[in-house]
Design a protein that fits this description.
Strand content: 35-45%
Number of helices: 6
Number of domains: 2
CATH topology of the largest domain: Diaminopimelate Epimerase, Chain A, domain 1
CATH superfamily of the largest domain: Diaminopimelate Epimerase, Chain A, domain 1
Distance between the termini: 10 Å
Largest sheet: 18 strands, mixed
Radius of gyration: 18 Å
CATH class of the largest domain: Alpha Beta
Structural class: alpha+beta
Number of strands: 18
Shape: globular
Order of helices and strands: EEHEEEHEEEEHEEHHEEEHEEEE
Amino acid sequence: MSILIHQVDAFADRPFAGNPAAVCVLDRPASATWMQRVALEMNLSETAFLHPEGDAWRLRWFTPTVEVDLCGHATLASAHVLWETRRLAHDATARFATKSGPLSARRVGARIELDFPVKLVERADPPPGLIDALGVRAVDVGRNVFDWLVEVENERDVRACAPNQHLLRTVNARGVIVTSRSSDPRFDFVSRFFAPGSGIDEDPVTGSAHCALTPWWSAKLRKSRLTAFQASARGGALWLTLEDDRVRIEGHAITVMRGELLADPA
């Protein structure tokens, strides 16, 4: 038995940019052990697994080392694959059942829009080792259920951040967001995302981090519609709208590879 697996560059309008995700569409559930092994084999920041469940798709996300509760770019990639393979009509909404509750995606022109929950950040004193690990001067610090958020003075500091990954791995969180206002008039803010404790030293473009970044910058900039850039080496743009307790996250996606997975889930 072979299973088609897709590699999609999410939050990218051209190949080899944005954040690559593997997408594996199954007929039925597979064991977590098997999915984790596939994710390790793919060795991308996330591999998504989905199968039909009622009128939705059950969706789970794995890094090479752990299963995560929320992932934006692999959800964007999953919706893209469902439309591209005609499992869903192009004008249909992709609905997902996940560990973070119901999520959905729809086409908006040339982009895909995700409907995700807000993950509010509360200001907090940084834990021991966090600022030293980042090597930055923090302007503001907070944390939410997933991550620490560290705001710095300017975009130059965001781009220059070179964390001590060994020290950062000791911080108790899924990951760490470093952010500032953008110096580019096309964008409201920039960010980077580090998650060595989850098996990813730096994630290229992190949709779920923008569930925190959107309300954070919306309050500071006093606007509900924002444009962001994640300033990793690959980089990616996101268009964001804050609506009550939801964040609408828009981005592009492009398939760069398809292959056959020969390891049977059974």
